[in-house]
Amino acid sequence: MKKAFWVIIVLPLWLLACSGEQPESADEVVVESSAESPDEIVSSNVTNASGELLIRDVSLIDGTGASLQSHVDIRISQGQIVEIASDLSAASGSEIIDGSDKYVIPGLIDAHAHLDAPVVFQLTPDEKAQIIEHTPKAFLYNGVTTVLNVSSDADWIFEQRQAERDGKIMSPRIYAMGRSLTPEGGWGSRHGGGLVDTEAALARARDLISRGTDGFKVMIEDGLGASGTYTRMSEEMMMAIAGIAQEHNVPIYTHAINLDEFHSAVTISSKAIIHGLEDPIPEGDTILQDMVENNVAMVPTQSLWEAFIRHDEAAADLNDPILRASVPHFLLDNMQDPVYRAEETKRFLAVANMLVYEWAEAKIPVFMENINKAHKAGVLLAAGTDAGGPVGFNFQGYNLPWEVKLFVQAGLSPMDALLAATRNGARVIGVEDKLGTVEVGKLADLLLLTANPLEDIENIRKIETIVYKGTVYPHDHFAYLAPGS
Predict the structure, then answer these.
(1) Which residues pair with 340 in a beta bridge?
(2) Which of 52, 88, 145, 453 could serve as 459's disulfide partner, Cβ 3.0–4.6 Å?
């Protein structure tokens, strides 16, 4: 097989996942892509790359909020859903999937992701390269067919986006923006890229617009909790960014965490606030009503806060076969070593500049309560993980089903939690006309499950088949294989 080489500049590794910034060293890592062309992406166990597919007699949860539909046929042609009905006839040459005793849901959407963040601090350049190379498949293996990549090196991420759209790499659908907009000394500036003044912010915004960015990530806060360890974005800079975003119809995704910052995010007409709310909402405060009235969604990233101190119980002390198929084994083996974990903890505490684990323990119940309150108030909730940064157990791909489960634990029904990871994610990105639901005319990204997720939300991990861009992939097609396997 021919090999193509993608050069990734691994900039400063995220201090925190929620920073969206890169590693401290500027090591140049050569990542060898194993799927360079459409012909090489489609292997012998993958079918129907461009023909017609008929899924017969399946139970459909279409992502619109409608009840489960039984004994449904779904016809897919040229990567698009063209017919949904009962007892459809198969066209000549169609591939047929027997969907009896199976459940179809839309492909999942991670509305706060980073494709270039290698999870832990203690990595060699080669290990970083292996993790970054595998990350797109980690998302796909876990049923995530679309990501909103909210902060990465602009040159790299826009190249990745174009390569995905050209069919040159195997990756979820990528919607992307470059480096975040953050002031000098701000939460996102710890490794460079801070904006010294409003003119610098506008210059970066114009550059991103020229690249066709899918949004602006605006980081306004001054650090986790009440630490105040970083500089908050000035009103002048914030409003200037809001102005140019409105002028060019660029959605704003605001990095905020406390109540005051949430109110500021509404003021600048954010499309979504891409973290949860750490403060209890006082009686009489109108933040949730304001978000509803101004169409500001929330992407709580609850699994991020949980990952500071624990992993999903399904991970089974990092021995879960699904996790092992999602993440390079050397990383999991290292993370099982108490000495290695202790060093990770030490480094995280040093860079957080606060008692971050105590903060997480105290705030997790508040975050969960506010998810429930936001849902009841009618705020659009979407699922996102902010996965990848070195905060603990912040696994790309694998943590999105955990995020959905946490929504259920926060009080949402399994149906509403699924909507957060499908239809609502598409709305946050602005692609609900083509993604997020299984409907005629939509692009054909869907999952075939062996059990009903409405009965047990853990069943979204029971993936048998992934239909992505109309092509049928067995689940294990995207599983991790160590080099040389």
Answers:
(1) none
(2) 453
CA atoms of 418 and 420, how far apart (whole Å)? 5
| pLDDT (mean) for 171-178 | 97
**Domain, as residue range, for 276:** 107-441
pTM assigned to the model = 0.90
Q: Which of 81, 95, 91, 4 is nearest to 45 (CA)?
A: 95
Query: Residue 83 in 3-state DSSP?
Result: strand
pLDDT over threshold 60, residue 125: yes
Answer yes or no: is pLDDT of 3 > 50.
Answer: no
Task: Quote the pLDDT of residue 350.
Answer: 82
The pLDDT, as a whole number, for residue 33 is 37
> Residues 241, 205: contact at Cβ < 8 Å?
yes
Q: What pLDDT is recorded for position 348?
A: 86
Extract the tokens encoding 419.
Answer: 């909507």
- For 70-88, the pLDDT digits (tens) are 999 999 999 999 999 999 9
Distances (CA, A) of 304 to 17, 59, 158, 309, 403: 8, 32, 25, 10, 9
**Residue 233 within any structural domain of the chain:** yes
pLDDT at 485: 65
- What is the pairing mode between strands 173-176 and 144-149? parallel
Which of 200, 228, 163, 218 minimizes the C-alpha distance to 33? 163
- Phi/psi region, residue 446 (left: phi>0; alpha: psi -120 to 50; beta: rest), is beta
Q: Which residues pair with 468 in a beta bridge?
A: 471
Q: What pLDDT score does 228 carry?
A: 62
Instruction: Please report whether residue 412 resides in a domain.
Output: yes
Of the pLDDT bands very low, low, confident and very high (cuts 50, 70, 90), residue 264 is: very high
Residue 99 belongs to some domain of the structure:
no
Q: How far is CA 171 from CA 114, 444, 474, 479, in A?
A: 13, 15, 15, 13
Residue 389 lies in a domain: yes
Q: Specify the number of domains making up the chain.
A: 1
Q: Which residues of 87-105 are buried (b: 16+ CB within 10 A; e: fewer)?
A: ebeeeeebeebebeebbbb
CATH for 316? 3.20.20.140
The CA distance from 426 to 420, in Å, is 9
Q: Cα separation of 146 and 107, whole Å?
A: 8
